[in-house]
Structures are given as C-alpha cells and as structure tokens.
Write a structure and sequence with these properties.
The protein is of the alpha/beta class and 344 residues long. The chain has 2 domains: 143 residues, 3-Layer(aba) Sandwich (Rossmann fold), CATH 3.40.50.720; 162 residues, Dihydrodipicolinate Reductase, domain 2 (2-Layer Sandwich). 34% of the residues lie in helices and 24% in strands. Strands 13-12-11-7-10-9-8-14 form an 8-stranded mixed β-sheet. A 6-stranded parallel β-sheet has the order 3-2-1-4-5-6, sandwiched between helices. The longest helix has 20 residues. The chain is globular and about 60 Å long. About 2% of the residues have low confidence. It comes from Paenibacillus baimaensis. This is Gfo/Idh/MocA family oxidoreductase. Pfam families: GFO_IDH_MocA (PF01408), GFO_IDH_MocA_C3 (PF22725).
C-alpha cells in the first residue's frame, strides 16, 4: 500500500470544495484529478485547493487513470449510482456524498458493484460526529433514558429561491431526488434513526408550500419505531430564519435534548448527572447558509477511507448503513403521495 492515497473528485460543485480542502490538509492524501462537465469549474476547484490535478470534462476518461485510489462522488444526487458503479468497475474505492443515491435500486446496484469488485464504499454523514450526538448515542445504548418512548427531529432550514435557481438540478425529482428531507434533512433523518433504532412505519404530509420547485420544501412525518416508540420529523427549507436543528429523545427514565448549539437537556431519573462538557470544533450548523458548513467532518471521512483501505475494513458509514435514511425518506414520500401509512 503506497504511503500516499491518491484521490479524484467527480463533480466540482459547492460540496466538492470540502472534499478538496480535506484532501489538501491530510498528510497522506493527494488530489490527482478532477472531472466536471464545466472545465472552468474544475479549474476553479483545483486553484482553490492549491493543487495541479489533471482535469477532465468526462469522468469516464478520469477513471482510466491508473494512479487513482479513491473517487469522491460529488455530482448531483441522481448521478451518484452511475458514477459509483463506473468507479467500482474501474477498481477505485468510492467516498460518496450524501445521500447515497435517490433510488432504492440505485443504492442496491452501488453496494453490489463495490462488493463484486472488492472496493470500499463510504458515505459522508458528518453530523454523526457531533459531540452531543455521540454522547446521546452512548447514553441511550447504556439504557440511561430507560425504555425509549419518543424520538423527534426538527430540521428547519432556510433556502432562498435563488438557492434553487443556482443549479438546474436543485429541487428536481430526477437529480435532487427530493427536497427538504432528501437534500438538507437527510442528515437529521439519519441521526434520529441512528439514535432511536430502525423505523417500522411512517405516515407523512409533504408539499412545496413556499418555493416553486418540483419537490417538497416542507414535510411532517409521524414515525413508529421497531422498538415500539413513536416520533415526529419536521423538515423544511422554507422558514425564515433557519432554525437550529434539534433532537428530542424521551424515555420512561430520562430525557436528552440537543441541537447544533449543544445539549439542552440531560436528565435521568434518580441521577444527578451533569451534561457532558465538550468543545465543538466541527461547526456543522448550516440552517440558513450552506456555505457555512465546516470541512472538519469531511476531513474525518477522508481519513476514515484512508484507514479503511490500509486496514482492509469497512468505512465508518458503509453502503448498507448509508442507505437507511434514504430508504426511510423514500417511504415518507410514498406515504405523502398515497395518503396512507407505509411500512418499511
């Protein structure tokens, strides 16, 4: 295994900057190629990253390069499976942006292709690294809240009309795959399921209430978890100003509530345990401005992919894990479309 792991980026849009910067900062990573259908955009990303990678307008030509170990898939969501499968067939490991894909069969094909060609498939879910989330996950697994009763996620973002006009793919079913839940809210959907366990069924309302887009800008979902607990997800991109994303975890022996700004409640029956103290250096809040997303989370997943390759282990969030929030969101969309409860 070479000392330096060589990365390529396919798709030079806004999120690709976080991949490029993370690769630039990592002592064992090198950015060797970028592909985008706009050569100017690829060149701008290369200059911003302070490197001189090879540039392509056709990602299939990029995949012919022998000196690529990992491909970062930063295309519009609806193209994730196409690029990932091609990369796997070329023998490249894949670090994919969220969501893994927007179709169940696409995700299955991605996972199968990477397994068949013996390459790693990882996905970026940087909010799993929030210190408050890590403490909450540990406390729930230790039984501190007792039997889980309610698990709620409030995902209230603001995205302007200009945001949706900034890319022809935004707000479309074909390439965005959904709106407030599939694009912005997928992180929170992932977290609430990660914390509370798998979901048994959903009943949902979703619509474009404020933006002129194909997909939803607002959704409300009732959940039944397999544990028997209930929950709610509220997701939107149409409230002003964007609100702190917030999670409420209630059990018969305690309550944990946390958000972007930290832990709000940490209360357990019969215990006087102070809330954990920590310094949040991730800067993961982007409720109102997506450009404010920190690169710290992406750096973790770049490093994780490097270590997964070296140790021949699964990435922290592999394909099977990354598909869970998408499967849940697809069930939510089906429920809203049909007006019935949908079992997963």
């Amino acid at each position: 295994m070479p000392d330096t792991i060589r990365f390529a980026i396919v798709g030079a849009g806004s999120i690709a900057r976080h991949h490029a910067e993370s690769i630039r900062r990592h002592p064992d990573a090198q950015l060797v190629a970028i592909a985008d259908n706009s050569l100017d955009r690829a060149q701008a990303l290369a200059e911003e990253a302070g490197s001189t990678p090879q540039l392509f307008t056709d990602y299939e030509e990029l995949l012919k390069l022998a000196d690529i170990d990992v491909v970062c898939v930063c295309t519009p969501s609806g193209a994730h499976s196409e690029v990932t499968i091609a990369a796997a067939q070329a023998g490249k490991h894949v670090l994919c942006e969220k969501p893994l894909d927007i179709h169940a069969d696409g995700m299955t094909a991605m996972i199968n292709a990477c397994r068949e060609h013996d390459v790693k498939l990882g996905c970026v879910f940087q909010r799993r690294l929030m210190p408050a989330m890590l403490h909450a996950h540990k406390a729930i697994r230790e039984g501190k809240i007792g039997r889980p009763v309610l698990g709620n996620a409030y995902l209230k973002y603001y995205r302007s009309p200009e945001y949706y006009k900034s890319g022809g793919w935004r707000g479309t079913w074909k390439l965005d795959g959904g709106g407030a839940l599939m694009n912005q809210g997928v992180h929170g959907v992932d977290l609430i399921q990660y914390l509370m366990g798998d979901v048994e069924s959903v009943f949902a309302y979703s619509a474009a209430l404020s933006r002129e887009i194909e997909v939803e800008d607002t959704a409300v979902v009732a959940l039944k978890y397999k544990s028997g607990a209930f929950g709610i997800i509220q997701g939107t991109t149409s409230v002003y100003p964007g609100q702190e994303t917030r999670f409420e975890l209630h059990g018969d022996q305690g309550t944990i509530e946390f958000g972007d700004e930290g832990i709000r409640q940490w209360i357990f029956k019969g215990q006087e345990e102070p809330a954990p103290q920590y310094e949040d250096t991730l800067g993961l809040s982007s409720s109102s401005n997506p450009s404010q997303i920190s690169t710290a989370g992406h750096y973790f997943y770049v490093d994780d992919m490097i270590q997964a390759i070296r140790d021949n282990r699964e990435p922290r969030v592999n394909g099977e894990e990354a598909r869970k929030p998408v499967d849940l969101i697809l069930a939510i969309y089906e429920s809203a479309r049909l007006g019935i409860e949908i079992k997963l």
